[in-house]
Amino acid sequence: CRPVAFHSSSTMKFTKVTLALALATGVLGWDDLIIEPPTGKTGAPVAMLFGQGASIDTSQYEALGKAIQDAVPFPLWFGAPQNYFDTAAIPTTLTVGMSRIKSDMYDMGMPENITTFFGGHSLGGAMMPDYVENSEKDAA
């Protein structure tokens, strides 16, 4: 009877490659999408954070974000963070991306105590309830 190896050499290689690519992505920059509210809207600002679908470039959500902003009467911040390997299913990827994009949005002038809506496309939408349940303590 052989003991089970939890860290086989192939698993370790995969982990090292994944970590290297993740670090390289972070060092080289993220392709996060942030759209500031358009001018001319009144009322309290609101945010919408949007989970990226698998293998979908975040820039492809720009038209959607602007259409939602145009459709609402209040100022709306729209953000879609890029995830490692463009997939929200990798553990903690969505959490890290949301934290990063919220920080950037705050730096751009978004209020910290803002009503926030969460959505997503495909895999990003499927992973969003888990993110909200585990990471957004004040979400209703």
Task: Give a short synopsis of this structure.
About 40% of the residues lie in helices and about 15% in strands.
Task: Outline the secondary-structure elements.
Blueprint: H1 9-28, E1 33-35, E2 46-51, H2 62-71, E3 76-80, H3 93-107, E4 115-120, H4 123-135
Parallel strand pairs: 2-3, 2-4
Antiparallel strand pairs: 1-3
Keywords: Signal
Signal peptide: 1-29
Protein name: Chlorophyllase
Give the overall pLDDT as a whole number: 85
Cα-atom Rg, whole angstroms? Answer: 17 Å
- Give start-end ranges of low-pLDDT stretches: 2-7
Strand order of the largest sheet: 1-3-2-4
Q: Pairing-aware structural class of the strands and helices?
A: alpha/beta
- The biggest beta sheet, please? 4 strands, mixed
Helical content, roughly? Answer: 40-55%
* Inertia-based shape: globular
Order of helix and strand elements from N to C terminus: HEEHEHEH
As a percent range, the share of strand residues is: 5-15%
CATH fourth-tier homologous superfamily: Alpha/Beta hydrolase fold, catalytic domain
- What's the N-to-C terminus distance? 51 Å
Continuous helix count: 4
CATH architecture, by name, is 3-Layer(aba) Sandwich
Report on the architecture of this protein:
Keywords: Signal. Residues 1-29 form the signal peptide. This is Chlorophyllase. The chain has a single domain, classed as 3-Layer(aba) Sandwich (Rossmann fold). The protein is of the alpha/beta class and 140 residues long. The chain has helices spanning 9-28, 62-71, 93-107, 123-135, and strands at 33-35, 46-51, 76-80, 115-120. Residues 2-7 have low confidence and may be disordered. Helices cover 41% and strands 14% of the residues. The radius of gyration is 17 Å and the shape is globular. It has four helices and four strands, in the order H-E-E-H-E-H-E-H. Strand 2 (46-51), helix 2 (62-71) and strand 3 form a beta-alpha-beta unit.
